[in-house]
Design brief:
Keywords: Endonuclease, Hydrolase, Membrane, Nuclease, Transmembrane, Transmembrane helix. It is a single chain. By secondary structure, this protein is α+β, with helices and mostly antiparallel strands. It folds into 3 domains: 66 residues; 89 residues, no CATH class; 41 residues. Helix content is 44%, strand content 17%. The strands form 3 sheets. Strands 2-3-1-4 form a 4-stranded antiparallel β-sheet, covered by helices on one side. Strands 5-6 form a two-stranded antiparallel sheet. Strand 2 and strand 3 form a beta hairpin. It is elongated and about 90 Å long. The N and C termini lie far apart (73 Å). The structure holds zinc ion. Zinc ion (ZN) binds next to helix 5.
């Protein structure tokens, strides 16, 4: 059996399970303890199933995942160093808003990747080695962060485009172009004496009649 390093988290407090209750710790022989209810150890998949079962019997919620899918403490700093702000502002890769305070978002949410093996395979195919891989990170404004929550949706595509500053320049040009067309059309309707204006007014009448 292939042994890998797993992180095993227990969430006893959620179930009113206190540390003082004897014997709970012996049921999960950890190799190293990260924090009070968090362990890392080398095990195979079948062992994880046994631990899950034990936790269930003790009415303790647990969460187990491979260590490579654990969130680390340095991804944010490294990412911000690699993508410095332009004129003191960062660009949200999802909506294009520029702001001074920005969050670094996991495009594929950490907990989902930890628990979904299909998603893990998908990430590997995309060349994303772990959840903190730069390819799984995106700048995200507060509003988009709230909106996105734990969903994936169309966000990988948004980030793929949004990370290029040129994309937002093009979006800006297209927006200006649309505004100019709308203003032009309004002027034509207000001044129907012109050929284009007359054409639009006639067209509008025909649509209305039909
Ligand atoms: Zn945004």
């Amino acid at each position: 059996m292939n042994k890998e390093i797993y992180v095993f988290e227990l969430h006893p407090r959620e179930y009113g399970f206190s540390k003082s209750k004897k014997g709970w710790e012996k049921k999960f022989p950890p190799l190293s303890r990260k924090s009070q209810f968090k362990y890392t150890f080398r095990a195979d998949k079948s062992m994880i199933s046994v631990y899950r079962q034990r936790a269930k019997q003790m009415h303790v919620d647990c969460h187990a995942y491979k260590r490579e899918y654990a969130r680390n403490n340095t991804y944010r700093k490294k990412f911000m160093e690699k993508h410095p702000p332009i004129a003191g502002r960062y660009r949200c890769w999802y909506c294009g808003k520029r702001c001074r305070n920005i969050t670094v978002d996991h495009i594929y949410p950490v907990k989902q990747v930890q628990t979904d093996e299909r998603l893990q395979r998908k990430l590997k195919r995309k060349g994303i080695r772990n959840v903190n891989d730069e390819k799984n990170l995106a700048f995200c404004c507060e509003k988009c962060n709230k909106k996105k929550g734990k969903t994936i949706g169309n966000y990988p595509r948004k980030a793929a485009f949004g990370k290029h500053e040129m994309y937002w320049v093009l979006v800006g040009i297209v927006r200006i172009f649309i505004i100019l067309i709308v203003i032009g059309l309004c002027l034509c309707f207000l001044k129907p004496n012109t050929a284009v204006g007359q054409f639009l007014v006639d067209l509008f009448r025909k649509i209305k009649i039909s």
